[in-house]
Design brief:
heterodimer; A: 412 residues; alpha+beta; Cytochrome p450; 5-stranded mixed β-sheet; 3-stranded antiparallel β-sheet; 12 strands; B: 106 residues; Ubiquitin-like (UB roll); 2 helices; globular; binds protoporphyrin IX containing FE; binds FE2/S2 (inorganic) cluster
Chain lengths: 412, 106
Amino acid sequence: MHVATDHPAWTTPLAALDPSHPGLFQADEMWPYFARLRRDAPVHFAESPFFGPYWSVTTWKDIVQVELNPQAFSSDSGFGGISIRDRPKGLELPMFIAMDPPKHDEQRKVVQPIVAPGNLARLQDLIRARVCHILDGLPRGETFNWVEHVSIELTVQMLATLFDFPFEDRRKLSYWSDSATMIAGAGGHVDSEATREAIFAECLAYFTALWNQRVNAPPRPDLISMLAHGEATRGMTPREFLGNLILLIVGGNDTTRNSISGGVLFLHENPGEFAKLQANPALLDSAVPEIIRYQTPLAHMRRTALVDTELHGQRIRAGDKVVMWYISGNRDETAIEAPDRFLVDRKRARQHLSFGFGIHRCVGNRLAELQLRILWEEILRRFPRIEVVGEPKRVFSSFVHGYTDLPVRIPA
Amino acid sequence: MPLITYIEHNGREHKVEVPLGHSVMQGAVDNAIPGIDADCGGECACATCHVFVDPAWLGRTGTPDAQEKSMVSFASTAQANSRLACQIQVTAALDGLVVRMPEAQH
Ligand code: HEM
Ligand code: FES
């Protein structure tokens, strides 16, 4: 671990340390704060001006312990849900990622078949055709934003397929996804919770029309049809339908998008690793999970303590907000060797926290890996390199860890 | 050491000796047998060590606890004889155990 003792991360009194400020993530300056917490206060209490009081859980072992104990650590949207930012009272969004058993289990099982081995195999050729189409259309010898032209485009195309959503309207999906995760009033198009609710109402109306078509047709392997026919989901309230839509839109969108961008950045910063991959594309087996670890597209998940409990010597009380910082656990040197290095041939690269663990572990993890794998196979076949030619711009958020701009150039 | 047979989904068999006290998952990982990913390293937290226990052995592999049951129940490939290999400890009574892999881990 690198300790620069004059950095505020190492000199601020522990009680005043607040690693959750979205500005730290936007500036990519959160790393030393988490290193300090892992060393000096692995389970740590702080007050945030944005999010109120919360506990940070920063080491691999403690994070897994919280994940495995949904009886003590709830995901329920009624207590504030799964991100450090509580949803405003009265505007809770029920969705199965923000539910506890048994209802969580029942609803999850309805959509799980979307990633059954047979369905993934069916999607593979389609993903490859789209990847090739997008890559072949990219300009050469010219600077462009990789996020816009590749990461967003590829993930919304995939999402449109999963929902069997009208293809020409697919950018609505990324618009709704961004609208759901954006911090209100922070400069984006969501200037207030009222604006967000108005956008949600549009989203719900659009999807309700799709639901009405699918519910009267025989079941098909798309997410809307699955929800409309599933025993545990067909009676959902409109608000619950909206919540689960937002879950599936955000879940499948931002995360994969930012892994696609992150991979380009990491391989640019580590030319030796890119050379290894070019020499041996079979290393994608470990390079893909390594990209997902190194990016950690969701910096945290949050729980709410249901009972008084102890974690790593700290007393957590019923009602307390508990934040599992995956982005820190993925750099925990007691669990991962040389965690700050990006290594395409890392041993046991699949052992990372980016998909979470336990009953809420990411439904889409294999699909995300499949998309990244095919993308990189086709990149390696085409481009000798992708140069990052300017500073990446990062998202103002301590939940979604990603990029809005990644200026690149593919040599002519 | 007890001999365990791992059969990949494509039918390929691997017979390996696994030390007492290790888990059936460790036996596969230590011998680089494909088809078991073990993303969580044996914490019953990922379900990527999913196997089907040969029916003849079900009586000797014990019963899954609540955590294991709920993790397995999310796998679209789950069957009545599904187990998480990290939750089966190798004992002398398991000498000869046969486990099969699902089409894919999730
Ligand atoms: C690299 C890409 C991705 C990352 C890093 C990621 C990350 C995560 C994380 C951290 C969780 C919560 C785990 C927990 O609370 O323990 C989660 C849950 C979930 N993800 Fe993903 N995800 C990705 C891609 C996807 C895709 C492509 C889909 C859509 C098909 C998806 C759908 C979901 C759903 C539905 C859940 C809720 C599961 C539950 O509560 O049982 N994710 N994901
Ligand atoms: S290794 Fe993760 S559940 Fe068995």
